[in-house]
Amino acid sequence: MKALSQKRRHPFAFVALLLLGLLLTGGLYAAATTVNQAQASNTPDGFSSEQVEEGERLFVANCATCHGMNAEGSDAGPSLVGVGAASVEFQVGTGRMPMQMQGPQAQQKPPQFNEEQTTQLAAYVASLGAGPGIPDDEWLDVDQGDPARGGELFRINCAMCHNAAGAGGALTEGKYAPSLHGVDAVHIYTAMTTGPQNMPVFNDANIPPEDKRDIIAFLKTYEKQGSPGGFSLGFLGPVSEGLLIWTLGLALLVGSMVWLTSRSS
Amino acid sequence: MSASKQTYTEDEYLEVNEYQPKSNTGRIANYVDTRVGGTSMVREFGRKVFPDHWTFMFGEVALYSFIITVISGAFLTFWFDPSMATTRYSGSYAPLQGLEMSMAYATSLELSFDVRGGLFMRQLHHWGALMFVLAMSVHMIRVFFTGAFRKPRELNWVVGASLLILGLGAGFTGYSLPDEVLSGNGLRIIDGMLKAIPVVGTYTSFFLFGGEFPGNEVIPRLYALHIFIIPALLLILIAVHLFMVVMHKHTQYPGPGRTERNVVGYPIGPVYAAKAGGFFFIVLGVLSLLAGTFQINALWNYGPYDPSPVQAGTQPDWYIGWFDGVLRIMPGFIGNIPLEFVLPTPWGGNAIATPVLVPMIPITLLLLGVFVWPWLETWITGDKREHHLLDRPRNAPTRTAFGVAMVVWYLVMWGAASSDLMATHFALSLNDVIYWLRAAFFLGPIIAYILTKRICLALQRKDREVALHGHEAGVIEVSADGEFHEKHKLPNEYELWTLVSYEAPAPSGPRPNAKGKITALEKLRARLNRIWFEDRVVPVSREEYLEVMSHHGHGPAALEAAESRQAITAGSSTDHR
Question: What are B367-375's contacts with CB under 8 Å, separation 24+?
């Protein structure tokens, strides 16, 4: 200590300190960037580099026409940097992507890629930039969810577009909120985290994963329960009820009226 | 002979004259009858003759649906608690377990899931209510298009229209009772409509809700209206309605042997009584079938009422639909100009909610129009005679056309209530649906009027053609000199009657009043009268008929038969004034 204090006025002390400082910042920076690179480009969490490579190949062959060779986006489709694996899981897993045609919004159709390919595509898109990932199974386990709480959350956050019974509803200019009956838990979850089409994003700060699980639990309970009162008429409420009474109801009664007033021959 | 001379004491006389039943049943029946006087009632009503036609039975459907709704509603009152006190749900429906809600909603859920037969009775009550208003509406349409509202039945028409409005009230108050999100939204719209009324709106709303919406008062108040006041009024008016039907006698369609002075049909007893009684059970059967197989108002979906959420697919029951629909097609802005404005007043200004107020205009006009129509039509046509024979709709082209125009107008408003479902189910843009409905709101009635009037006139011309020249038989004959012509089959006497027995007077010009002056109002009347009658199709006259018959070269026997046809004389009075 004494030696150090004596040498602090040495003419080279300033140079040595500067060197030390530069080395430290440079070293830290280098370390930090390599860590970042390892996360961003090589292998995103939960995926292998092989999957990323395969995914890139599939992407170039099937998606690049609209989304660009490096997923940077074009006039025909948005950039996919930072949309995350969850977006791919939802869009490709429900058959919405690749899109059949341009329109107000992507239509659901039978998935064009199998599970393995979808995961590869998800790995590639996730490697482009940080974004919402595919949820852990824990958050999709409806047995751990509370359907009553989920129902309340659903009515407050979702029912204005998706209908109280999840039957779907209209939005402006040909867009619509689709029916939620028969949708996989993972797709309900990823739809909430990514906000596909016209849906807003419900991130984890807005609706925590536990609450998302409750909502899924509610929808699944609802699906299982069916309609206690008979045929559901599409869960559309008074309009389909009115239609039924004016068609079947009226027809049955007019039929019996004609029968009652006809003369027996 | 000796027996007839026998004298009786007063007691013996009474005993002999009294009917002595032989069986026990007879004795009981006689005991009751001598004290209630049922015989005379049966004699009076049982002999009442009613004409037979299926379109005359919609009123009956309405009556029976009402009775079914009352009975099923009484069942519901045993469990339903119209209270807005909060409770925590602990019934058997899992997805609502533990949620805070009003007693009204909790007991509605209890009725649906924990009361034996409760869900069925709830659904029967609701389907019955839908059918009640439906049957009244169709009944009213039938009465309108056949002209059954004419003298002497104008007041009964007004009673019927009041019944329809009461039916809407009964339905809406019932729809609002379960206190779930759907019905709460419905009430919110009514609240908005009330508050849109300038100056007094807010006071009216606070008066109804007992303070700011939604408050804790409205469900018990609606309940009192729903189970007591409105049904009582309905019952009274139904009694008046039926009493007037019996007093006026029933109308009938024109046909051979049917005149303004008779009623052709069967007496109530015994066949009609049996038919009508049986028909009650058919209506009950149809409604039970619906209640047992089709879910209606799944109130467990909507959740306890909370003023913040509004759900997609929120609609009223069908009969309130047109209120909702007309609000949906009313724009709030035209370009960038808001339609809502603030009226400056000494106390600071009154907001005028034009987008809510203006849509109430067509509704008010239509309802008001229903009430005044019988007098309006009499005023225009100048026809002040009694009518017990109905019009075939084609034989009153202007009325029919106007009626169809109004029905189309109603349908546009009604359909607009499901604009969102039309968009999703037919893959359309919601905006386009609204634009088309706006166009249809103005153009629909006009197009419907023109089309219907033309169709009616074309049908009348065809009737003339058939009466004079017969139906095309589809058989082509070649004469000896090579001429082709189609055989025509003349209508029989029964058919001829319906084809020719109607009236189509020429338009009557303006007539001066007692002071010899033609008022502006009278000029208006004359103009409307001209529009009413100007393109009339004149029914076949006797001369015309005979001329055509002789021209056709029918034998003297056929001509003689033609001359004896009463229908032509009956219906040939083209100008009755």
Answer: B367/B161, B367/B165, B369/B406, B370/B140, B370/B161, B370/B164, B371/B158, B371/B161, B373/B144, B373/B149, B373/B157, B374/B149, B374/B150, B374/B151, B374/B153, B374/B154, B374/B157, B374/B158, B375/B154
CATH number at residue B168: 1.20.810.10
| Distance, CA of A81 to CA of A126 (rounded, Å) | 8
Read off the pTM. Answer: 0.87
Interface pTM, i.e. ipTM = 0.89
pLDDT (tens digit per residue) in A81-110? 989 899 999 999 999 988 888 888 888 899
Point out the residue among A170, A229, A257 whose CB comes nearest to the CB of B420.
Answer: A170
Whether A245 is covered by a domain: the verdict is: no
Confirm or reject contact between B54 and chain A (CB < 8 A): yes
Asked if pLDDT for residue B566 goes beyond 60, the answer is no
Contacts of B286 in chain A (CB under 8 A): 249, 252-253, 256
- Is A10 labelled a binding residue? no
A67 in a labelled binding site: yes
Domain of A105, in residue numbers: 49-128
- The SS3 of residue B545 is helix
B55, B130, B313: residue with CB nearest A167: B313
CB spacing of A227 vs B298 below 8 angstroms: yes
Give contacts of A100 with chain B, Cβ < 8 Å.
none
* CA–CA gap between residue B477 and residue B487 (Å, rounded): 7
Point out which residues pair with B101 in neighbouring strands: B87
DSSP strand pairing (B484-489 vs B471-478): antiparallel
What are the Cα distances from residue B526, in Å, to A48, A61, B450, B509, B521? 90, 79, 21, 5, 9
Is it the case that residue A32 has pLDDT exceeding 80? no
Q: Which position has the token pair 């995961």?
A: A119
In a domain, B527, yes or no: no
d(CA B279, CA A255): 12
Q: Residue A181, annotated ligand binder?
A: no
d(CA B381, CA B507): 8
Q: Which residues of B touch A246 (CB under 8 A)?
A: 134, 318
User: Taking a C-beta distance cutoff of 8 angstroms, is the pair B187, B176 a contact?
Assistant: yes
Query: Which DSSP category does A178 fall into?
Result: P
Pick from B113, B318, B431: which is nearest to A242 by CB? Answer: B318
Q: Work out the minimum CA distance from B176 to partner chain A, whole angstroms.
A: 13
Mutation target for A interface from B68, B69, B318, B407: give the one with most A CBs within 10 A: B318
In chain B, what residues touch A249 (CB-CB under 8 Å)?
A: 127, 130-131, 134, 286-287, 290
- Domains of chain A: total: 2
**A119 and A77 in a common domain:** yes
